[in-house]
Predict the 3D structure of the following.
Amino acid sequence: MNSDPTIAPITSSHIQAGVSNHGTLSFNEQWRQLKLAHCAVSNYGTSHQFWGSKKNVHSVYTKSHGKKDEKTRARLDAMNIPDGSLVLDIGAGPGTYAIPLAKRGCMVTVVEPSPVMRELLETRMKKEKVKNITIIPKRWEDVEPAELGAPCDAIIASFSLTMMDMAAALTKMHATCKGTVHLFWFLTPPTWAEVNKDLWPLLHGGSFPGEPTADWLWQILYEMGIYANLQPEQHISLPRYASIDEAVEEFRQRLNCTTPAHEETLRNYLNTVLRRDGDGLILGSGTRSTHIWWNTMDQHPVIRP
Amino acid sequence: MTDISDIDWNEAWNSPGPERRGKGEFVTCLERWSEPERCRKFDRMAKADNWQGSWNRIRAMKITPESRVLDIGAGPGTLAVPLAGIVRHVTAVEPAPGMADCLRENIRQSGIRNIDVLQKKWEDVEISSDIECPFDAVVASYSLGVPDLKEALLKMDAASGKYVYIFWFADMQSPWRRNYGEIWEPLFSVPARDQRQPNIIFNLLNQIGIYASVEVTKEDHISSFAGIEEAVADQSAGLKLKTDEQVSVLRDFLIRKLQPENGRYVLKGISYQAKIWWEKET
């Protein structure tokens, strides 16, 4: 995490003096600042742009199905959503949870801003003969409560928490659910963020801000007066590639490589950091993710101005 | 904009927080339990109905009849005594003389043979010589009023071979602070905006690389009184009120909050209790 050397480290008296009053210590504000820092990085683009590219979506989503199915099953088990529930899936992607839940009789409303994802989802719906999924083609931030209909029994936001004002996004979720809200997010930084941190300065100059992690997310809920459960996942996710070319392809997109010099730097870096594991190559030290959830009927958040 | 990763969470724990009453008065865990009568009253409540209040916490821990458990800040044996009946052995660490006396008395009265009492502060315990590590489960239930939380947590982790459990207030507030939040400022002159503390235990654990789980349970609290004056006297003692003005503020508040029920008056409150726990990576 980048720290501004001109600001003195916080002391306990800062904590005493003003948790949310001066905004000096607010995890929601910290989250917002980090997302803003991403916007300031030239050439980076937004997640909307990233997931709007067919190439990116397919390269990230269509490899290693086996492991993915295992993780999906584990997360569905952890959420334990009863068959036939009313479910809201925010950033549903290609229907990772929406499809299996719809097959179990759930009425699923999907919020998905990426046209490429929606196309994948619709294709899968046809293939699996699943009809009880409604798609709202918008970002969560732009969805009006009136569009959502009756309060749902469960909300899922799995690795889709790209909102800048997280407290606002979570408040909206809490207000529209009469049941359990389930969040899945990174507890330790995802590998691609670490790669971006290393390479961005070399390719484009300037620094790349890290990705906000789930401990902040839990604290944002805490600041709102929601005392959520948190369970780190057993599985440590380690990106795997069949070849260095596959890795180069993925990171060329993420890092916005546009020149041969960029690609050479990337290739040299990957050559150094990729490690052989059986018949593949692995990258980084692994990412731990976590499940955060709370029952909206038990908690009474304080809505701060 | 201050960077949250610069915060020394350990220092924050140490400093007088929103629980302070009036300027400069900070009560440590040990000081709080130094009056024998107070300990005896707590002891009576804790063992009511065969340690009724303890079983939720005991069930929340992964223990077996073969387990050896370390109970830090065991009090009068709130967890240690009922645990002793279902595990192999309990080592109870309890520094307050009043509490340790109640604990020994409870052990003697129940004929328990598998509890060892170590009357020492956790920060003074030498894990290599005072106790026999590793334990299958290390638990600290509402007992982390220690000066160096980081050292305490790391020591708990070192003493355990498998599980560590911390039971604490999810919102970092005692039920007193939570239920009287509305009148805390008029009672104790602590401004409302100073009263919210971040969850330091959670932040400190993540900062030192222990990715603990958090399980939150909502609890209902009901106290019942014969009348308003009994309620005022009882709650005033619990809040340690000193002036007539404070008692007056309390009385006005209770008149609004007490609800008649079956010929008595009840005070209802809720609290959020957290179980923060982890399993050691082998």
